[in-house]
Design brief:
The protein is mostly helical. Helix content is 75%, strand content 0%.
Length: 171
């Protein structure tokens, strides 16, 4: 249950940030729509084949995130009457606080290392590096991703703290 809580908070935050980007960053709307629906018509002319391949990989990871979020939510909901349910929520949220604290330290102390490591883990085939003048880099520059990682981390912190508060023993 603790791991499910941890995964649920992380996946929910990813989905919320991804949806928020659509509203907060208008240049990304056609690309985010592709990531959500798979329809390439609006973006096919914008990107090179290698950029489209990377976006396709991102889309698959986001679909996996939806699956993880749904499965963990169903699992947590089905376990809500277990006597140790709130303790497990508390532990999962605590684990998330530790993980996101490490990510925040990485963002502010060694952004390049964190960014590169993140991509090497999630895109081991190597299709995540592009020239500085590529459409993908121009639409989504490094500063954009720094902000997204920071917002995501703050959202995980908030969701974890909320879970911690809601899972406190009732007196």
């Amino acid at each position: 249950l603790s791991l499910a809580t941890c995964l649920f908070i992380i996946s929910l935050a990813i989905l919320l940030v991804q949806s928020g980007i659509w509203w907060l960053y208008p240049p990304s709307r056609s690309t985010i729509t592709y990531l959500q629906t798979g329809r390439t018509i609006a973006i096919i002319h914008l990107y090179t084949p290698s950029e489209l391949a990377h976006l396709s990989d991102v889309r698959h990871l986001l679909n996996l995130t939806w699956v993880i979020c749904a499965i963990t939510f169903i699992y947590l909901y089905s376990c809500r009457r277990f006597p140790y349910f709130y303790r497990a929520l508390h532990r999962g949220a605590t684990l998330d606080l530790i993980l996101v604290s490490l990510v925040l330290m990485g963002i502010f102390l060694s952004w390049n290392f964190l960014f590169i490591t993140f991509h090497e883990i999630l895109f081991p085939q190597g299709n995540w590096t592009f020239p500085a003048d590529s459409t993908l880099i121009r639409l989504f520059p490094e500063k954009f991703w720094f902000t997204v990682f920071a917002l995501y981390s703050v959202l995980v912190l908030f969701l974890s703290l909320l879970t911690l508060i809601l899972s406190l023993p009732k007196s």
